[in-house]
Amino acid sequence: MYYLTNETPLFVIPSLAVQFNEKGAMILLQLHKKLQEEGEYFEDQCWYCQSYEDWHTQLPFLRKSTIKNQLKKFEALGIVHATDRFNKFSVDRTKWYSLDYDILGAMTGFSAEDLDSYLA
Fold it and tell me: How far apart are alpha carbons 106 and 15 in whole angstroms?
């Protein structure tokens, strides 16, 4: 098979993009993917630790301020939970993120399994 690049493609679910805009939909899917691949469990919930710089490395076409604003918007809606309390050092302010699939499902109709099917 011939590939144009060795990069992993990013996907956007149209109905999520309509509800949250294409940048927000991409960030939600990226967070879901990272939770599935690299998430760690604390307090019976899956979390993924990532700095804004790391977000920007994964989504280089988005400004860091855009990523930060989108994540804060999702936090305000209750879709994303963020904390720094799982960091090993108290001076580390890198955030851990988790998705609240119940709230996301109530707002959009998408479950974790639905999101998985887009990433398969």
Answer: 14
pLDDT (tens digit per residue) in 90-119: 888 899 999 999 999 999 998 888 888 877
From the centroid of its chain, how far is CA 45? 15
Residue 93 CA to residue 115 CA, distance in Å, equals 29
- Number of structural domains (the chain) is 1
From CA 28, how far away is CA 111, in angstroms rounded? 12
- Give the model confidence (pLDDT) of 57-81 as tens digits: 999 999 999 999 999 999 999 999 9
Q: Give the domain extent around 84.
A: 14-119
* Distance between CA atoms of residues 94 and 96, nearest Å: 7
